[in-house]
Amino acid sequence: MFSSSFLRLILLLCLLSSSFSSTASSSNSTAADQTLRPQEELQKLKLIRQELDKINKPAVKTIQAISLFIVVNLINSPDGDVIDCVSTHQQPAFDHPLLQGQRPMDPPEIPEGYNKDDESYEEDSQLWSLSGESCPEGTIPIRRTTEQDMLRASSISRFGRKIRRVRRDSTNNGHEHAVGYVTGRQYYGAKASINVWSPRVTSQYEFSLSQIWVIAGSFTHDLNTIEAGWQISPELYGDTYPRFFTYWTSDAYRTTGCYNLLCSGFVQTNRRIAIGAAISPRSSYKGALVGYWPAFLFTHLKQHGSMVQFGGEIVNNRPGGSHTTTQMGSGHFAGEGFGKASYFRNLQIVDWDNTLIPVSNLKILADHPNCYDIRGGTNRVWGNYFYYGGPGKNPRCP
């Protein structure tokens, strides 16, 4: 595990609603076992390749890695990803009927109170650019999706999506949380600094993440969220590296939304940051505008959020009938404090006049406190903060 890097993250409601004024290499093929059910396997591969044709866009340039508003202090580690430099107007977002044939809008306005000095970043902050390679002007870097990625998914239709859950107390589908949250006003974004760890994830179909949610609607069929942070997801990425990610939904994770750029939705404008790339503690960048979500994707969030959450989430599949040993945060309980427990600090929200202000009336919730807990506080340096996380299964969490 490591924590020498941290992630400074601003998640703004960049929901813009006015009108928008060489070929990629084929994906890695998989030698599927066609001896037991050859017709079914062939049909599955056909469907996978159709989906890959939608996700992987024609690339201007391809780079092989060596072995709302988002600001991050991230670092990349060896992951072997293939990065395609895709024309900004050909990224998956522009498959949406309301965006087809158009181009990205101008970046959203940065909120008052945001330190402009934090916008600088190192050119080699992600591994795929360490060799000096970069994506040219007018393109963005996209991590190429492979057949292996899709074959790991529980189903093709659910690839790149969270399992549906509809309650914040996460009594459904094994989702467990330790979060700080604010309600009671209109929210137009959020900001926090997060330290990055490498928690153990013990099952392919479990994950561990730390993120910010900007939320509107009810925790039923009409939940709207935009999300960003870091996650470990063996099913999605095929490894256990912590990776920078985004997510959105407009119907409580039922049929809309996805991770990163795996469906039409989030519009990326930055050509140096690859969403879904791994994080490591070698080099870092303070922050950069990554992109935005168009307002038409949402029902409630097209106006503002009604809740902001900060914190961790895991999936517990109860292997062998007992609680998972998948860790949250650093894998240490909140009471172990600085250097051991994971934290969120300097929590802020964006107000109605596009101003960053400290959160007030922060509430904390751990829905399985014997497995993962949370402790909040405030001081002059960290402002509003909390420690959170835990090991999962232990004598108090059988």
TrEMBL record:
Domain Neprosin PEP catalytic residue range list: 169-398
Naturally occurring in which organism (per UniProt): Arabidopsis arenosa
Region (Disordered): 96-118
UniProt signal peptide: 1-21
Origin: domain of life: Eukaryota
Signal is among the record's keywords: yes
Database matches in PROSITE patterns: NEPROSIN_PEP_CD (PS52045)
Keywords recorded for this protein, A-Z: Signal
InterPro entries: Glutamic_endopeptidase, Neprosin, Neprosin_propep
Stored Pfam families: Neprosin, Neprosin_AP
Name of the protein: Neprosin PEP catalytic domain-containing protein
